[in-house]
Amino acid sequence: MSEQHDLRISGGRVMSTFTGEEFAADVLVRGDRITAVLPPGTPATAGEEIDATGMLIVPGFVDAHMHIESAFLTPQEFAAVTLARGTTTVLADPHEIVNVAGRDAMRWMIDAGGQTAQTQLWGVPSCVPALEGLEHAGAALSADDIADMLGWPGVIALGEVMDYRAVVAGDRRMHEITAVARAHDAILDGHCPNLTGAELSAYLATGVDSDHTKNRTEVVLEKARLGMTMMLQEKCLTPDVATALLSLPQLPPLCLVTDDLAADHIVERGHLDHIARVAVAAGFPPHVVLKALTWTPAQRLRLHDRGVVSPGKRADLVLLRGELAAFEPALVLAGGRIVGRDGAPEQATPASETLAVPPLDSRVDVEPQEADGYRWRVDLPDGTHRFRAMSVNPRDTYTEATEVELPVSDGEVHWEGRTTLVRVRNRYGRPGMVFAPLLGRDLGEGAVASTYAHDSHNLLTIGTSRAAMAAAAATVVADGGGVAVVRGAAGETVAARMPLPVGGVLSARPAHDVAAQAAAVRTALETWGWNHLNPFMSVSTLTLAVSPALKITDRSLVDVARREPVAATVGD
Asked: Does pTM surpass 0.85?
Protein backbone atom coordinates (compact mmCIF):
# COMPACT_ATOMS: atom_id res chain seq x y z
CA MET A 1 0.00 0.00 0.00
CA SER A 2 1.69 3.20 -1.19
CA GLU A 3 -0.44 5.88 0.51
CA GLN A 4 0.75 7.42 3.77
CA HIS A 5 -1.14 6.58 6.94
CA ASP A 6 -1.05 8.56 10.17
CA LEU A 7 -0.90 5.59 12.50
CA ARG A 8 -0.15 1.88 12.49
CA ILE A 9 -1.21 -0.34 15.38
CA SER A 10 0.88 -3.49 15.10
CA GLY A 11 1.49 -6.67 17.03
CA GLY A 12 -2.02 -7.00 18.43
CA ARG A 13 -5.00 -9.22 17.81
CA VAL A 14 -8.28 -7.80 16.52
CA MET A 15 -11.53 -9.01 18.05
CA SER A 16 -14.34 -9.28 15.50
CA THR A 17 -17.72 -8.21 16.82
CA PHE A 18 -19.29 -9.99 13.85
CA THR A 19 -17.83 -13.47 14.31
CA GLY A 20 -16.54 -13.46 17.88
CA GLU A 21 -13.07 -14.43 16.66
CA GLU A 22 -9.65 -13.07 17.49
CA PHE A 23 -7.18 -12.72 14.63
CA ALA A 24 -3.71 -11.25 14.28
CA ALA A 25 -3.75 -8.01 12.27
CA ASP A 26 -2.24 -4.56 11.94
CA VAL A 27 -4.69 -1.66 11.99
CA LEU A 28 -3.94 1.46 9.93
CA VAL A 29 -5.51 4.86 10.59
CA ARG A 30 -5.66 8.11 8.65
CA GLY A 31 -7.36 11.07 10.27
CA ASP A 32 -10.41 9.79 12.16
CA ARG A 33 -10.88 6.66 10.01
CA ILE A 34 -9.56 3.14 9.90
CA THR A 35 -7.95 2.79 6.48
CA ALA A 36 -6.90 -0.87 6.55
CA VAL A 37 -6.88 -4.05 8.64
CA LEU A 38 -4.01 -6.13 7.26
CA PRO A 39 -2.10 -9.33 7.96
CA PRO A 40 0.81 -8.57 10.31
CA GLY A 41 3.82 -7.08 8.57
CA THR A 42 2.05 -6.13 5.34
CA PRO A 43 4.06 -3.23 3.87
CA ALA A 44 2.49 0.15 4.59
CA THR A 45 3.95 3.48 5.66
CA ALA A 46 2.67 5.38 8.68
CA GLY A 47 3.82 8.46 10.54
CA GLU A 48 3.47 6.82 13.95
CA GLU A 49 3.37 3.26 15.23
CA ILE A 50 1.78 1.80 18.35
CA ASP A 51 3.06 -1.53 19.63
CA ALA A 52 -0.01 -3.54 20.63
CA THR A 53 1.86 -6.78 21.37
CA GLY A 54 -0.14 -8.86 23.82
CA MET A 55 -3.23 -6.67 23.43
CA LEU A 56 -6.66 -7.06 21.90
CA ILE A 57 -7.88 -4.35 19.53
CA VAL A 58 -11.64 -3.76 19.88
CA PRO A 59 -14.06 -1.01 18.86
CA GLY A 60 -14.75 1.91 21.18
CA PHE A 61 -17.57 1.30 23.65
CA VAL A 62 -20.99 2.85 22.98
CA ASP A 63 -23.37 3.73 25.84
CA ALA A 64 -26.90 3.87 24.41
CA HIS A 65 -28.55 5.00 27.64
CA MET A 66 -27.06 7.22 30.31
CA HIS A 67 -27.27 10.55 32.11
CA ILE A 68 -24.14 12.68 32.38
CA GLU A 69 -25.57 14.49 35.42
CA SER A 70 -25.49 11.26 37.44
CA ALA A 71 -21.71 11.65 37.53
CA PHE A 72 -22.17 15.21 38.92
CA LEU A 73 -19.70 16.34 36.21
CA THR A 74 -19.77 18.79 33.33
CA PRO A 75 -19.82 17.16 29.89
CA GLN A 76 -16.12 17.98 29.43
CA GLU A 77 -15.02 16.32 32.66
CA PHE A 78 -17.34 13.38 32.11
CA ALA A 79 -15.82 12.83 28.68
CA ALA A 80 -12.27 12.92 30.01
CA VAL A 81 -12.74 10.19 32.60
CA THR A 82 -15.03 7.93 30.59
CA LEU A 83 -13.02 8.11 27.37
CA ALA A 84 -10.06 6.79 29.34
CA ARG A 85 -12.22 3.79 30.24
CA GLY A 86 -13.06 3.08 26.61
CA THR A 87 -16.44 4.84 26.26
CA THR A 88 -16.07 6.74 23.01
CA THR A 89 -19.76 7.38 22.24
CA VAL A 90 -22.77 8.13 24.44
CA LEU A 91 -26.43 8.94 24.00
CA ALA A 92 -27.07 11.31 26.88
CA ASP A 93 -30.53 12.12 28.20
CA PRO A 94 -30.11 15.35 30.23
CA HIS A 95 -33.45 15.09 31.97
CA GLU A 96 -31.94 16.03 35.34
CA ILE A 97 -30.61 19.47 34.45
CA VAL A 98 -33.42 20.16 31.96
CA ASN A 99 -35.97 19.63 34.75
CA VAL A 100 -34.09 22.37 36.61
CA ALA A 101 -33.43 24.93 33.87
CA GLY A 102 -35.25 23.84 30.72
CA ARG A 103 -34.15 24.46 27.14
CA ASP A 104 -31.22 26.69 28.10
CA ALA A 105 -29.73 23.85 30.14
CA MET A 106 -29.90 21.43 27.23
CA ARG A 107 -28.31 23.93 24.85
CA TRP A 108 -25.45 24.40 27.29
CA MET A 109 -24.96 20.64 27.69
CA ILE A 110 -24.86 20.15 23.91
CA ASP A 111 -22.39 23.00 23.43
CA ALA A 112 -20.16 21.74 26.24
CA GLY A 113 -20.22 18.18 24.93
CA GLY A 114 -19.27 19.40 21.48
CA GLN A 115 -15.91 20.56 22.86
CA THR A 116 -14.86 17.01 23.73
CA ALA A 117 -13.26 14.13 21.82
CA GLN A 118 -16.16 11.91 22.88
CA THR A 119 -19.13 11.58 20.55
CA GLN A 120 -21.92 12.93 22.76
CA LEU A 121 -25.35 12.56 21.17
CA TRP A 122 -28.54 13.66 22.86
CA GLY A 123 -32.11 12.73 23.63
CA VAL A 124 -34.69 15.42 24.39
CA PRO A 125 -36.15 14.69 27.84
CA SER A 126 -39.70 13.42 27.40
CA CYS A 127 -40.89 14.01 30.95
CA VAL A 128 -40.29 17.54 32.21
CA PRO A 129 -41.68 17.36 34.82
CA ALA A 130 -41.46 13.60 35.25
CA LEU A 131 -45.08 13.34 36.40
CA GLU A 132 -47.19 16.26 35.26
CA GLY A 133 -49.72 17.47 37.81
CA LEU A 134 -48.14 15.69 40.76
CA GLU A 135 -44.92 17.65 41.17
CA HIS A 136 -43.33 20.99 40.32
CA ALA A 137 -39.94 21.13 38.63
CA GLY A 138 -37.99 24.18 37.57
CA ALA A 139 -39.14 23.87 33.96
CA ALA A 140 -41.73 22.25 31.72
CA LEU A 141 -41.48 21.03 28.13
CA SER A 142 -44.50 20.77 25.86
CA ALA A 143 -44.80 18.65 22.74
CA ASP A 144 -44.09 21.81 20.72
CA ASP A 145 -40.89 22.41 22.71
CA ILE A 146 -39.79 18.85 22.12
CA ALA A 147 -40.57 19.05 18.40
CA ASP A 148 -38.31 22.11 18.14
CA MET A 149 -35.50 20.59 20.21
CA LEU A 150 -35.50 17.39 18.15
CA GLY A 151 -34.17 19.52 15.32
CA TRP A 152 -31.13 20.75 17.25
CA PRO A 153 -27.67 19.54 16.17
CA GLY A 154 -26.63 16.28 17.80
CA VAL A 155 -30.17 15.42 18.97
CA ILE A 156 -31.25 11.99 17.72
CA ALA A 157 -33.72 10.65 20.27
CA LEU A 158 -36.64 11.20 22.58
CA GLY A 159 -35.31 10.60 26.07
CA GLU A 160 -36.69 7.76 28.15
CA VAL A 161 -40.48 7.84 28.31
CA MET A 162 -40.69 7.41 32.06
CA ASP A 163 -44.35 8.24 32.55
CA TYR A 164 -45.28 4.87 31.11
CA ARG A 165 -48.50 4.69 33.12
CA ALA A 166 -49.70 7.80 31.29
CA VAL A 167 -48.75 6.29 27.94
CA VAL A 168 -50.70 3.07 28.46
CA ALA A 169 -53.65 5.03 29.87
CA GLY A 170 -53.87 7.06 26.66
CA ASP A 171 -52.77 10.36 28.19
CA ARG A 172 -53.04 13.08 25.54
CA ARG A 173 -49.83 14.92 26.44
CA MET A 174 -47.61 11.83 26.35
CA HIS A 175 -49.15 10.65 23.09
CA GLU A 176 -48.52 14.06 21.53
CA ILE A 177 -44.88 13.83 22.67
CA THR A 178 -44.33 10.34 21.25
CA ALA A 179 -46.10 11.38 18.03
CA VAL A 180 -43.78 14.34 17.41
CA ALA A 181 -40.79 12.07 18.02
CA ARG A 182 -42.04 9.61 15.42
CA ALA A 183 -42.69 12.47 13.02
CA HIS A 184 -39.04 13.49 13.38
CA ASP A 185 -37.93 9.88 12.87
CA ALA A 186 -36.25 10.01 16.27
CA ILE A 187 -35.24 7.03 18.37
CA LEU A 188 -37.78 6.57 21.19
CA ASP A 189 -36.13 5.46 24.41
CA GLY A 190 -38.18 3.58 26.98
CA HIS A 191 -38.59 3.13 30.74
CA CYS A 192 -41.27 0.64 31.82
CA PRO A 193 -40.29 -1.63 34.74
CA ASN A 194 -42.16 -4.95 34.68
CA LEU A 195 -44.74 -3.70 32.17
CA THR A 196 -46.33 -6.75 30.59
CA GLY A 197 -49.26 -8.08 28.58
CA ALA A 198 -51.74 -5.69 26.98
CA GLU A 199 -50.12 -2.68 28.65
CA LEU A 200 -46.74 -3.55 27.17
CA SER A 201 -48.35 -3.83 23.73
CA ALA A 202 -49.93 -0.41 24.18
CA TYR A 203 -46.57 1.06 25.13
CA LEU A 204 -44.76 -0.52 22.18
CA ALA A 205 -47.48 0.64 19.81
CA THR A 206 -46.46 4.26 20.43
CA GLY A 207 -43.04 3.56 18.91
CA VAL A 208 -41.08 3.26 22.16
CA ASP A 209 -38.92 0.19 21.66
CA SER A 210 -36.26 -0.12 24.38
CA ASP A 211 -36.12 -0.61 28.12
CA HIS A 212 -33.22 -0.28 30.57
CA THR A 213 -35.10 -0.83 33.84
CA LYS A 214 -34.96 -3.80 36.18
CA ASN A 215 -37.53 -6.44 35.20
CA ARG A 216 -38.49 -9.88 36.38
CA THR A 217 -36.71 -12.47 34.25
CA GLU A 218 -39.90 -13.58 32.52
CA VAL A 219 -40.65 -9.96 31.59
CA VAL A 220 -37.16 -9.53 30.12
CA LEU A 221 -37.92 -12.45 27.81
CA GLU A 222 -41.39 -11.15 26.95
CA LYS A 223 -40.01 -7.74 26.01
CA ALA A 224 -37.14 -9.25 24.01
CA ARG A 225 -39.39 -11.54 21.97
CA LEU A 226 -41.58 -8.56 21.04
CA GLY A 227 -38.57 -6.76 19.59
CA MET A 228 -37.82 -4.40 22.44
CA THR A 229 -34.10 -3.67 22.70
CA MET A 230 -33.09 -4.78 26.16
CA MET A 231 -30.55 -2.47 27.77
CA LEU A 232 -28.94 -4.13 30.77
CA GLN A 233 -27.45 -1.96 33.49
CA GLU A 234 -25.60 -3.33 36.52
CA LYS A 235 -28.63 -4.13 38.67
CA CYS A 236 -30.18 -6.06 35.73
CA LEU A 237 -27.14 -8.30 35.22
CA THR A 238 -28.05 -11.34 37.28
CA PRO A 239 -27.22 -15.00 36.61
CA ASP A 240 -30.94 -15.73 36.16
CA VAL A 241 -31.27 -13.15 33.40
CA ALA A 242 -28.07 -14.33 31.71
CA THR A 243 -29.15 -17.97 31.78
CA ALA A 244 -32.62 -17.19 30.45
CA LEU A 245 -31.37 -15.07 27.55
CA LEU A 246 -28.57 -17.46 26.60
CA SER A 247 -31.05 -20.35 26.59
CA LEU A 248 -33.16 -18.81 23.85
CA PRO A 249 -32.97 -20.32 20.35
CA GLN A 250 -31.45 -17.02 19.22
CA LEU A 251 -29.86 -14.37 21.39
CA PRO A 252 -31.75 -11.07 20.98
CA PRO A 253 -29.96 -7.75 20.49
CA LEU A 254 -28.61 -6.57 23.84
CA CYS A 255 -27.01 -3.31 24.92
CA LEU A 256 -24.99 -2.86 28.08
CA VAL A 257 -25.61 0.58 29.56
CA THR A 258 -24.55 2.55 32.61
CA ASP A 259 -27.68 4.67 33.20
CA ASP A 260 -26.47 6.32 36.42
CA LEU A 261 -22.88 6.14 37.70
CA ALA A 262 -21.35 8.67 40.12
CA ALA A 263 -17.92 10.22 39.59
CA ASP A 264 -16.22 8.19 42.33
CA HIS A 265 -17.53 4.94 40.84
CA ILE A 266 -16.19 5.86 37.40
CA VAL A 267 -12.77 6.89 38.70
CA GLU A 268 -12.36 3.93 41.05
CA ARG A 269 -14.18 1.09 39.27
CA GLY A 270 -14.83 2.11 35.70
CA HIS A 271 -17.64 2.96 33.32
CA LEU A 272 -18.84 0.60 30.57
CA ASP A 273 -15.70 -1.48 31.19
CA HIS A 274 -17.03 -2.11 34.71
CA ILE A 275 -20.48 -3.07 33.40
CA ALA A 276 -18.76 -5.48 31.01
CA ARG A 277 -16.97 -7.23 33.87
CA VAL A 278 -20.25 -7.49 35.79
CA ALA A 279 -21.88 -9.07 32.73
CA VAL A 280 -19.09 -11.64 32.42
CA ALA A 281 -19.44 -12.47 36.12
CA ALA A 282 -23.18 -12.97 35.60
CA GLY A 283 -22.48 -15.61 32.96
CA PHE A 284 -22.45 -13.82 29.59
CA PRO A 285 -19.61 -14.97 27.30
CA PRO A 286 -17.02 -12.21 26.75
CA HIS A 287 -17.62 -12.02 22.98
CA VAL A 288 -21.35 -11.52 23.62
CA VAL A 289 -20.50 -8.80 26.11
CA LEU A 290 -18.24 -7.04 23.61
CA LYS A 291 -20.97 -6.99 20.96
CA ALA A 292 -23.40 -5.54 23.53
CA LEU A 293 -20.86 -2.77 24.21
CA THR A 294 -20.15 -1.91 20.59
CA TRP A 295 -21.98 -3.13 17.51
CA THR A 296 -25.49 -3.46 18.94
CA PRO A 297 -25.65 -0.04 20.64
CA ALA A 298 -24.07 1.56 17.56
CA GLN A 299 -26.85 0.09 15.44
CA ARG A 300 -29.43 1.20 17.99
CA LEU A 301 -28.13 4.76 17.64
CA ARG A 302 -27.99 4.44 13.82
CA LEU A 303 -24.23 5.00 13.89
CA HIS A 304 -23.19 2.76 11.05
CA ASP A 305 -19.62 4.03 11.08
CA ARG A 306 -18.58 2.29 14.31
CA GLY A 307 -18.95 -0.84 16.40
CA VAL A 308 -16.52 -3.01 14.42
CA VAL A 309 -12.80 -2.80 13.60
CA SER A 310 -13.05 -2.49 9.83
CA PRO A 311 -11.74 -0.25 7.03
CA GLY A 312 -13.84 2.86 6.54
CA LYS A 313 -15.13 2.86 10.10
CA ARG A 314 -14.39 5.58 12.62
CA ALA A 315 -11.10 5.04 14.43
CA ASP A 316 -12.64 4.71 17.89
CA LEU A 317 -10.49 1.91 19.27
CA VAL A 318 -9.71 0.34 22.62
CA LEU A 319 -6.57 -1.70 23.20
CA LEU A 320 -7.30 -4.18 25.96
CA ARG A 321 -4.64 -5.73 28.15
CA GLY A 322 -4.85 -9.47 28.85
CA GLU A 323 -7.91 -11.62 28.24
CA LEU A 324 -11.05 -10.12 26.74
CA ALA A 325 -13.03 -11.04 29.88
CA ALA A 326 -10.97 -8.60 31.94
CA PHE A 327 -12.04 -5.62 29.81
CA GLU A 328 -8.97 -3.68 30.94
CA PRO A 329 -8.31 -0.65 28.71
CA ALA A 330 -4.61 0.01 28.16
CA LEU A 331 -4.96 2.59 25.40
CA VAL A 332 -8.02 4.38 23.99
CA LEU A 333 -8.31 6.25 20.69
CA ALA A 334 -11.23 8.47 19.71
CA GLY A 335 -11.30 9.61 16.10
CA GLY A 336 -7.76 8.35 15.64
CA ARG A 337 -6.37 10.36 18.57
CA ILE A 338 -5.08 8.90 21.84
CA VAL A 339 -7.38 10.04 24.68
CA GLY A 340 -6.58 7.63 27.50
CA ARG A 341 -3.85 5.39 28.88
CA ASP A 342 -4.28 2.74 31.57
CA GLY A 343 -7.66 4.13 32.61
CA ALA A 344 -6.45 7.72 32.98
CA PRO A 345 -7.14 10.67 30.65
CA GLU A 346 -4.32 11.57 28.30
CA GLN A 347 -4.71 15.17 29.42
CA ALA A 348 -6.35 15.47 32.83
CA THR A 349 -7.61 18.74 34.24
CA PRO A 350 -5.05 20.03 36.79
CA ALA A 351 -6.04 19.20 40.37
CA SER A 352 -8.21 21.81 42.10
CA GLU A 353 -8.61 23.90 38.93
CA THR A 354 -12.10 25.35 38.74
CA LEU A 355 -13.80 25.09 35.37
CA ALA A 356 -15.93 27.82 33.84
CA VAL A 357 -19.32 27.83 35.54
CA PRO A 358 -22.17 27.81 33.01
CA PRO A 359 -24.83 30.52 33.20
CA LEU A 360 -27.43 28.33 34.89
CA ASP A 361 -29.15 29.65 38.01
CA SER A 362 -28.98 27.01 40.77
CA ARG A 363 -32.25 28.41 42.15
CA VAL A 364 -32.30 26.98 45.67
CA ASP A 365 -35.08 29.41 46.47
CA VAL A 366 -36.19 28.41 49.98
CA GLU A 367 -36.56 30.00 53.38
CA PRO A 368 -33.69 29.77 55.93
CA GLN A 369 -33.38 26.14 56.99
CA GLU A 370 -34.17 25.93 60.71
CA ALA A 371 -35.44 23.15 62.97
CA ASP A 372 -38.95 24.63 63.10
CA GLY A 373 -39.23 24.02 59.37
CA TYR A 374 -39.12 20.30 60.11
CA ARG A 375 -42.12 20.28 62.40
CA TRP A 376 -44.63 18.02 60.71
CA ARG A 377 -47.94 19.79 61.09
CA VAL A 378 -51.23 18.05 60.27
CA ASP A 379 -54.95 18.68 60.53
CA LEU A 380 -55.67 15.72 62.79
CA PRO A 381 -57.12 15.33 66.28
CA ASP A 382 -54.88 14.42 69.19
CA GLY A 383 -54.14 10.70 69.45
CA THR A 384 -52.29 7.95 67.63
CA HIS A 385 -52.71 7.77 63.87
CA ARG A 386 -51.53 5.41 61.15
CA PHE A 387 -49.34 7.12 58.56
CA ARG A 388 -48.26 5.90 55.15
CA ALA A 389 -44.54 5.21 55.12
CA MET A 390 -41.95 4.54 52.45
CA SER A 391 -39.93 1.35 52.84
CA VAL A 392 -36.57 1.09 51.06
CA ASN A 393 -34.34 -1.92 50.35
CA PRO A 394 -30.58 -2.45 49.85
CA ARG A 395 -30.81 -3.74 46.25
CA ASP A 396 -32.69 -1.38 43.96
CA THR A 397 -34.60 1.90 43.88
CA TYR A 398 -38.08 0.44 44.26
CA THR A 399 -39.95 1.43 47.38
CA GLU A 400 -42.89 -0.23 49.07
CA ALA A 401 -45.85 1.37 50.82
CA THR A 402 -46.10 0.47 54.46
CA GLU A 403 -47.52 2.01 57.65
CA VAL A 404 -46.32 3.33 60.98
CA GLU A 405 -48.26 4.56 64.02
CA LEU A 406 -47.27 7.96 65.38
CA PRO A 407 -48.74 10.24 68.06
CA VAL A 408 -50.27 13.60 67.19
CA SER A 409 -50.90 16.46 69.60
CA ASP A 410 -51.69 20.11 69.01
CA GLY A 411 -51.62 19.53 65.27
CA GLU A 412 -48.06 18.18 65.18
CA VAL A 413 -46.78 14.66 64.48
CA HIS A 414 -44.25 13.61 67.12
CA TRP A 415 -41.94 11.53 65.01
CA GLU A 416 -38.51 12.12 66.54
CA GLY A 417 -37.17 9.02 68.29
CA ARG A 418 -39.82 6.88 66.58
CA THR A 419 -39.00 6.93 62.85
CA THR A 420 -36.81 8.45 60.19
CA LEU A 421 -38.48 11.32 58.36
CA VAL A 422 -38.34 12.42 54.71
CA ARG A 423 -39.19 15.97 53.71
CA VAL A 424 -39.40 17.38 50.18
CA ARG A 425 -39.40 21.17 49.85
CA ASN A 426 -39.98 22.88 46.51
CA ARG A 427 -36.86 24.90 45.69
CA TYR A 428 -38.20 26.97 42.79
CA GLY A 429 -40.09 29.62 44.78
CA ARG A 430 -43.27 27.59 45.24
CA PRO A 431 -44.82 26.70 48.62
CA GLY A 432 -44.82 22.88 48.32
CA MET A 433 -43.65 20.85 51.33
CA VAL A 434 -44.47 17.18 52.04
CA PHE A 435 -43.42 14.81 54.85
CA ALA A 436 -43.39 11.01 55.15
CA PRO A 437 -41.89 8.39 57.49
CA LEU A 438 -39.13 6.19 56.07
CA LEU A 439 -38.53 2.56 57.06
CA GLY A 440 -35.96 -0.04 56.05
CA ARG A 441 -32.82 1.63 57.40
CA ASP A 442 -31.20 1.42 60.83
CA LEU A 443 -29.73 4.91 60.95
CA GLY A 444 -27.67 6.67 63.56
CA GLU A 445 -28.30 10.24 64.63
CA GLY A 446 -27.95 12.57 61.67
CA ALA A 447 -29.36 13.55 58.30
CA VAL A 448 -28.71 13.93 54.59
CA ALA A 449 -29.96 16.73 52.36
CA SER A 450 -29.75 16.99 48.58
CA THR A 451 -30.91 19.08 45.65
CA TYR A 452 -29.98 16.11 43.46
CA ALA A 453 -33.38 14.41 43.77
CA HIS A 454 -34.84 12.79 40.64
CA ASP A 455 -36.21 14.28 38.52
CA SER A 456 -37.56 17.62 39.69
CA HIS A 457 -34.56 18.12 41.99
CA ASN A 458 -36.36 19.83 44.81
CA LEU A 459 -34.74 20.01 48.24
CA LEU A 460 -34.85 16.50 49.74
CA THR A 461 -33.96 15.97 53.40
CA ILE A 462 -33.90 12.69 55.34
CA GLY A 463 -33.06 12.51 59.02
CA THR A 464 -33.58 11.31 62.55
CA SER A 465 -34.10 14.74 64.16
CA ARG A 466 -35.39 18.14 63.17
CA ALA A 467 -32.16 19.86 64.14
CA ALA A 468 -30.00 17.46 62.12
CA MET A 469 -32.24 17.81 59.06
CA ALA A 470 -32.10 21.59 59.27
CA ALA A 471 -28.30 21.52 59.58
CA ALA A 472 -27.91 19.29 56.51
CA ALA A 473 -30.30 21.38 54.44
CA ALA A 474 -28.68 24.66 55.52
CA THR A 475 -25.31 23.30 54.36
CA VAL A 476 -26.71 22.44 50.94
CA VAL A 477 -28.40 25.82 50.55
CA ALA A 478 -25.17 27.60 51.51
CA ASP A 479 -23.36 25.61 48.80
CA GLY A 480 -25.86 26.70 46.14
CA GLY A 481 -27.11 23.13 45.85
CA GLY A 482 -25.53 19.73 46.34
CA VAL A 483 -25.46 16.93 48.90
CA ALA A 484 -24.51 17.07 52.58
CA VAL A 485 -24.44 14.44 55.32
CA VAL A 486 -24.37 15.49 58.98
CA ARG A 487 -23.90 13.51 62.19
CA GLY A 488 -25.26 14.01 65.69
CA ALA A 489 -28.69 14.81 67.10
CA ALA A 490 -28.17 18.48 66.27
CA GLY A 491 -26.27 17.83 63.07
CA GLU A 492 -23.25 19.41 64.68
CA THR A 493 -20.74 17.58 62.48
CA VAL A 494 -20.71 17.85 58.68
CA ALA A 495 -19.48 14.38 57.76
CA ALA A 496 -19.31 15.10 54.02
CA ARG A 497 -20.52 17.62 51.49
CA MET A 498 -20.51 17.83 47.70
CA PRO A 499 -21.40 21.29 46.37
CA LEU A 500 -23.30 21.16 43.07
CA PRO A 501 -23.78 24.81 42.15
CA VAL A 502 -24.46 24.17 38.45
CA GLY A 503 -28.24 23.92 38.55
CA GLY A 504 -27.99 22.16 41.92
CA VAL A 505 -27.02 18.93 40.10
CA LEU A 506 -23.51 19.41 38.66
CA SER A 507 -20.11 20.54 39.88
CA ALA A 508 -17.79 22.77 37.86
CA ARG A 509 -14.69 21.22 39.42
CA PRO A 510 -12.32 18.65 37.89
CA ALA A 511 -13.50 15.05 37.88
CA HIS A 512 -11.04 13.79 40.48
CA ASP A 513 -12.04 16.55 42.91
CA VAL A 514 -15.70 15.67 42.47
CA ALA A 515 -14.93 11.97 42.75
CA ALA A 516 -13.24 12.57 46.11
CA GLN A 517 -16.27 14.51 47.35
CA ALA A 518 -18.68 11.85 46.05
CA ALA A 519 -16.65 9.10 47.72
CA ALA A 520 -16.78 10.99 51.03
CA VAL A 521 -20.57 11.38 50.76
CA ARG A 522 -20.94 7.68 49.86
CA THR A 523 -18.83 6.67 52.88
CA ALA A 524 -20.75 9.03 55.17
CA LEU A 525 -24.07 7.59 54.01
CA GLU A 526 -22.88 4.03 54.56
CA THR A 527 -21.42 4.87 57.98
CA TRP A 528 -24.74 6.47 58.92
CA GLY A 529 -26.44 3.17 58.02
CA TRP A 530 -27.62 3.79 54.46
CA ASN A 531 -26.34 0.56 52.93
CA HIS A 532 -27.13 0.07 49.26
CA LEU A 533 -25.56 -1.05 45.98
CA ASN A 534 -25.84 2.59 44.85
CA PRO A 535 -26.52 4.90 47.84
CA PHE A 536 -26.80 8.01 45.66
CA MET A 537 -29.58 6.48 43.57
CA SER A 538 -31.34 4.99 46.57
CA VAL A 539 -31.57 8.41 48.24
CA SER A 540 -32.20 10.53 45.16
CA THR A 541 -34.96 8.36 43.67
CA LEU A 542 -37.25 8.61 46.70
CA THR A 543 -38.72 11.53 44.75
CA LEU A 544 -38.91 9.75 41.37
CA ALA A 545 -42.67 9.54 41.04
CA VAL A 546 -42.62 7.26 37.97
CA SER A 547 -40.69 4.46 39.72
CA PRO A 548 -42.65 1.95 41.83
CA ALA A 549 -44.25 1.95 44.21
CA LEU A 550 -44.71 4.85 46.70
CA LYS A 551 -42.78 8.07 46.12
CA ILE A 552 -42.80 11.59 47.52
CA THR A 553 -42.87 14.93 45.67
CA ASP A 554 -43.25 18.56 46.68
CA ARG A 555 -47.02 18.14 46.30
CA SER A 556 -47.89 14.76 47.81
CA LEU A 557 -47.14 11.14 48.34
CA VAL A 558 -47.70 9.36 45.03
CA ASP A 559 -49.03 5.88 44.31
CA VAL A 560 -46.95 5.20 41.20
CA ALA A 561 -48.99 2.29 39.84
CA ARG A 562 -52.25 4.25 40.10
CA ARG A 563 -50.53 7.51 39.13
CA GLU A 564 -52.35 9.52 41.75
CA PRO A 565 -51.72 11.30 45.03
CA VAL A 566 -52.46 9.49 48.28
CA ALA A 567 -53.16 10.81 51.76
CA ALA A 568 -50.50 10.91 54.45
CA THR A 569 -52.69 8.87 56.79
CA VAL A 570 -54.33 5.47 56.46
CA GLY A 571 -57.87 4.81 57.56
CA ASP A 572 -58.60 8.18 59.16
From this structure: yes
